[in-house]
Amino acid sequence: MSGYEAHTFWCIKCGQRGLDIQRKVNHRHGKHHRKKLWCPWCKMEVNHIECRNDKEVEEFKENFAAGLYKEELEESLEVIKKENSVWS
Ligand SMILES: [Zn+2]
Q1: What range defines the domain where residue 52 resides?
Q2: C-alpha 53 to ligand 1 mean position (Å)
Q3: Contacts of 37 (CB under 8 A, 6+ apart)
Q4: Window from 25-29, 54-58, 66-70 with minimum mean pLDDT
Q5: Pick from 32, 41, 20, 36: nearest CA to 77
């Protein structure tokens, strides 16, 4: 055992796979943990869904296809706009 496992992160905006992060195995979050990451496809910081195995990836893809993340995406983009407006 290496002590690490590869988790995949999936963008809630475009549904594509983002950059992988190596996590320590004992670094546990709940299922479909959110993390704001740079999406190489959207070219911006977007919430990503963390998937720990193929089953969770399948679930993410189903949820994404069903539009489950649309509202959450709009909310998170709204926050980015507000954060930016403070500095403009
Ligand atoms: Zn994206």
Answers
A1: 4-87
A2: 20
A3: 9, 11, 18, 19, 45, 46, 47, 48
A4: 25-29
A5: 36
Report CA(5)–ligand 1 centroid distance (Å).
Answer: 23
> How many C-beta atoms lie closer than 10 Å to residue 46's C-beta?
22
pTM above 0.90, yes or no: no
What is the residue type of 23? R
Domain count, the chain: 1
Query: 46: CA distance to ligand 1 center in Å?
Result: 7
The pLDDT tens digits for 39-59 are: 999 999 999 999 989 999 999
Beta bridge partners of 58: none
Distance 44 CA to ligand 1 centre (A): 8
Query: 47 exposed, middle or buried (CB, 10 Å; 0-12, 13-18, 19+)?
Result: buried
- Residue pointed to by tokens 């706009």: 81
